[in-house]
Amino acid sequence: MDNRPIGLLDSGDGGFSVVKKVIKKLPEESTIFIGDNANMPYGNKSKEEIINLTRHSVKFLLSKDVKLIIIACNTATAVAMPTMQKEVKQQIIGVVQSGSLAAARATENKNVAVVATPVTINSHAYQREINYRDPKIKVTELAAPKLAPLVEAMEDYETNLKVVKESLEPLKNKNFDTLVLGCTHYPIIQKEFEAALPDDISIVDPADQVAQYTFNVMQRDNLFAASGSVAKHEYYTTGNVSSFEKMGRSFLDDDSLTAIHVNTENL
Ligand code: DGL
User: Fold this and answer.
1) 83-113 pLDDT, tens per residue?
2) Active site annotation includes 183
3) pTM for this structure?
4) Distance from the CA of 1 to the center of ligand 1, in angstroms?
5) 75 is in an annotated binding site
6) Sequence-ordered list of residues with C-beta below 8 angstroms from that of 235, at least 6 positions apart, any chain
7) Residue 104: in which H helix or E strand, if any?
8) Cis peptide, bond prior to residue 198, ω within 30 of zero
């Protein structure tokens, strides 16, 4: 039994999409989510910069005494996870491994497309992880540099749809039956992805499998909070508090959500 919170980190608002699934799957667990909005986007930074920024957020979460850490960011999972696992004794859970497992299970024609940030795509982390599960799966990778900043800008549906359609254009005629939302910002505009794609494409949000995997790890390591615990959820950002709160309130459907500004650089 362990009543400490679960820590989650992302470059920005995208982590809310993982927080939502984790809270749903583990309703008695407290969570602490930090979005590094001041440094967003991570998707076009160097490996060294991303490792350094991820380290700051990890240190912040450890200062809050979290029992495990979910890197709720594909970009940070793709390039910073092995380093964090070496540096920290807490269990660290990434999103790419779970997303790959879900995609390998979902595809029937063995043809998967992955849309993600340039860093995630250039790392080929998804291709590697999907093919590790099934070498016969064809993986088409597409970098979409405009999409995470688009989500963060909280534009209207029509604007989002137009940019999603343009971004997915290179996937035309690729014959995939499964599309992985390989950036945690994308599930926030999942409706626009659904509208931009034919109805028979399965859209994989890795967060579902991340929540299941987190549950499994906590069961294995006896990390569940005491039964009947009332969960507390805390939100921190290195960026603008009111836009972070606005996104959190709308996506988690919780008008009482409040966030706190933090500076993680000097931890
Ligand atoms: N949400 C992040 C991800 O899952 C990245 C967005 C960004 O900062 O570029 O990759």
Assistant:
1) 999 999 999 999 999 999 999 999 999 999 9
2) yes
3) 0.97
4) 33
5) yes
6) 32, 33, 35, 244, 245, 248, 257, 258, 259, 260
7) helix 96-106
8) no
